[in-house]
Amino acid sequence: MFDTLTGRFESVFSRLRGRGRLSAEDVDAALREIRVALLEADVNLDVVTSLTGRIRQRAVGEELSRALNPAQQVTRIVLSELTTSLGGERMAITYASKPPTVILLAGLQGSGKTTNAAKLAQWFLRQGRSPLLVGADLQRPAAVAQLRTLGERAGVPVFSHSRSPVKAASASLAEAARTGRDVVIVDTAGRLAIDTEMMDQVRRISKAVRPHYTFLVVDATVGQDAVKSAKAFHDTLALDGVILTKLDGDARGGAALSVKEVVGRPIAFASNGEKLEDFEPFHPDRLASRILGMGDVETLIDKAEAAFEAEQAEETASRLLEGTFTFDDFLATMQQVLGMGNLRSILGMMPGVPREMRDADVDESRIGRITGMICSMTPAERAEPDIIDASRRQRIAAGSGCRSAEVKALVDQFKQMRSMMKGLGGLGSKRPAAAARARSSKQAGRSRGKSSASKRRGTGGRTTPKGPVPISKAPLTLPGLEKGDWPGLN
Questions:
Q1: What DSSP string runs through 311-332?
Q2: Lowest mean pLDDT among 34-48, 53-67, 115-129
Q3: Alpha helices (H) along 113-142
Q4: I need a labelling partner for 400 at 20 to 30 A (CA). Which of 274, 285, 381, 408 fits?
Q5: Mean per-residue pLDDT for 258-276?
Q6: 215: closest CA among 249, 247, 245?
Q7: Which architecture characterizes domain 307-426 according to CATH?
Q8: Which CATH number does the domain 101-291 belong to among 3.40.50.720, 3.40.50.300, 3.40.50.261, 3.30.56.10?
Q9: How high is the pLDDT of residue 155?
């Protein structure tokens, strides 16, 4: 969503880094480009004026004149002020002293309220809570049925009432108390546009359940219309926060940069995909860092910790360095990486990745071909690729819908990688603890038992040449990626 804006910021900062000292004219020229970039991204005019004014006030003042590297200082100022515009700090969720904690979701039709109700419920599950979903949208056909389907996928029960939305919401509190649910999430009806009837219904539901949090679900691809509707809802409901959806879309993203300053309420959560897992608390500083092309290491670490089991990762790394890494290990690792999210999103979080690589189209079907070849192997073949001969390659190729040459390339490159990593593991100065203990227990006997033949040979017992294990210089590739491209990138 912010690719174009990121490119403009990177261009501005690149020119600033080419200057030794920055004058007020240099700062003004950079701010003019930033202003145009923000307006092109559909950021609210008042927000653009406020943001660039704050940046200029700090960038031409004493703070910049004392800086050893003014260009870096300007970048830091822009990052700080952009973070402020996005909300400053992450919104913390607190829970009612007497359960349940009630959360009311409102928004226009098509903004994703029902889907994000289920996403929010699954997020509360991961926090150790017991949520209950409430279907109070009785106007849209099959809205409650959709919520039940999503609730089943999330592992969260759904409560509804066929008589009226207000009664359904009100009765859900008793249902939550009866079933021991400590969080109630109420999904309300929406319209294609704001009208009196919708606002009155949401107001009556809010009065019946007295929510601890009222969140407005906003479609980030709508632009300034989303900000206008957020302001109208806030005037009626007194919002506590905003849930931004479709942050993975191709729109310009002005709503994300405008809603906090215009509405005066923070962005609480962000949805950046269609899966229930593509939902997380909103971190203003992390998004600001990504917009400026600096990556988002903290979110990348969070995703990695969620996708990888620590013990399993250590065991896999150990087998990799010992040369006992199998195709099963490779497949499991690749699936865990994909579990962190789509590859383009992961690349966007990595600092220092070239813009061309971040903007490249990701075709995960090419990774699917590799998965198909591995799954077409027998357990013995996955454990020991050396036994895969021509006839086995033909069978694997037929089972995976690939060519025999692709299977051969995968096997050859895998064996090369395994040999390379085994060699790297042998170059380390520290040996495994077990090996060290075994070596110390035998050290005395070995020193006494050196054979005279060894002495005559002058080798001191050495059976391999001196120096590090030779490592192949050939580049590591996979089928279809012989030129060294990143996996899954066209």
A1: HHHHHHHHHHHHT---HHHHHH
A2: 53-67
A3: 113-126
A4: 274
A5: 84
A6: 245
A7: Orthogonal Bundle (1.10)
A8: 3.40.50.300
A9: 92
